[in-house]
UniProtKB/TrEMBL annotation:
Pfam families: Rv3660c_N. InterPro entries: P-loop_NTPase, ParA/MinD_ATPase, Rv3660c, Rv3660c_N. This is Septum site-determining protein Ssd. Residues 14-122 form the Rv3660c-like CheY-like N-terminal domain.
Length: 365
């Protein structure tokens, strides 16, 4: 993965004013951000180049000072004031590269968005890979979990906090955490997010999700009645893409509005199809609907003894074939034992590795 959020630089606040500091720290706390704080420009010098955002109080930029020449002009600098800024503030702010002068509390919302954007790694939006079953029982959920686990364990592709996120897009699917054997692991589920409103912090979500071995999971609590609205799903997806390096999503075949929102943002959508006549017939409708949302659709054929040739299935659906996945009773037993996609010698695990090896170079571009 190209970026590790575990070691991401923190926003820098430079002010000797308790009033400014309290105001900015309150906004940071709301977004679960831990900033660096310096009382003057001289002590901020070591952190100046690497900070994703610098917030300067007008008390430190009221006029030219001896330390200004040693601070390089840079982007992502804002100045906060309590009243309309004086001319001297503008002069020094421009010399340091400040793009905005914000009046607090009037511009609290603007500063909160800047802080959250930079803390989440703005500009590093994770690619989304979506998996959809062409028919019931095709194995899309299992393959999605296998690909996510493979990506999280790839050499150089994970960190201790989980750069890869597996998203369960089907509230009626039984829960991907159960498939992984992680249903008892503490952390947020979709149902906990149902009552949220507005912009969400990807950093805060990242810290709150269940995770193990480099893989975070956003699943459903079984039996819960609270279901997030389409707007909440969109806000959550936007936030987690800022705070992870890869998002793998398992979507329902009926593609409701929330699932369509995920499919529309997917770099690649993978349809998993059984190699029988009914499976291919059912997949035809799924592919037709998915085509309205996803511009890049690939195919994985689940093979059974005596089934249709994978090439014929691909030709019938007019989709490029990624790989095949054999029927495997050992995988079902592995799920019952709580090891699921990590079971050795499982065809699902092998298919997950194959899919990831083919998609990883494209997603890294």
């Amino acid at each position: 993965m190209p970026f590790s959020y575990a070691s991401a630089p923190r926003p820098l606040i430079v002010t000797g004013s308790e009033e400014h500091l309290d105001a900015v720290l309150r906004l940071c706390a709301a977004a679960a951000i831990e900033p660096l704080v310096c009382a003057e420009l001289a002590t901020a010098r070591p952190h100046w180049p690497a900070a994703p955002l610098v917030v300067l109080g007008d008390d430190v930029v009221a006029g030219p000072g001896p330390d200004l020449p040693v601070l390089e002009r840079r982007r992502d600098v804002v100045v906060v004031v309590r009243d309309d800024p004086r001319p001297a503030v503008w002069t020094t702010a421009l010399a340091l590269g400040a793009e905005q002068v914000l009046v607090l509390p009037r511009d609290d919302d603007a500063l909160a968005q800047l802080l959250a954007d930079r803390a989440d790694g703005s500009g590093r939006t994770a690619p989304v890979v979506a998996f959809v079953g062409g028919s019931g029982g095709a194995g899309a959920s299992s393959l999605a979990a296998s690909v996510a686990r493979t990506a999280a364990r790839a050499p150089g592709g994970r960190d201790a906090d989980g750069d890869v996120l597996l998203v369960d897009g089907d509230p009626l699917g039984g829960g991907l955490d159960l498939l992984l054997g992680d249903e008892a692991r503490p952390g947020l589920r979709w149902n906990d997010l149902a009552a949220t409103h507005g912009r969400l912090s990807g950093t805060a979500l990242r810290r709150s999700l269940p995770r193990a071995d480099g893989l975070a999971v956003l699943s459903w609590e079984r039996g819960a009645r609270d279901v997030p609205s389409d707007e909440v799903v969109a806000a959550v997806l936007t936030a987690v893409r800022r705070a992870h390096a890869l998002v793998v999503a398992d979507l329902p075949r009926h593609l409701d509005a929330a699932a369509a929102e995920v499919a529309a943002r997917a770099a690649v959508s993978v349809v998993v199809v059984s190699d029988d006549v009914r499976g291919v017939a059912a997949a035809t409708s799924v592919v037709r609907r998915l085509t309205g949302w996803s511009s890049d659709i690939r195919l994985v054929v689940r093979r059974r003894r005596g089934g249709l040739p994978p090439a014929l299935v691909a030709e019938t659906l007019a989709l490029p074939l990624l790989t095949t996945m054999s029927e495997d009773s050992r995988f079902r037993r592995a799920v019952e034992d709580g090891v699921g996609p990590v079971a050795r010698r499982s065809s699902v695990r092998a298919a997950g590795r194959s899919v990831w090896s083919l998609l990883a170079p494209e997603l890294a571009r």
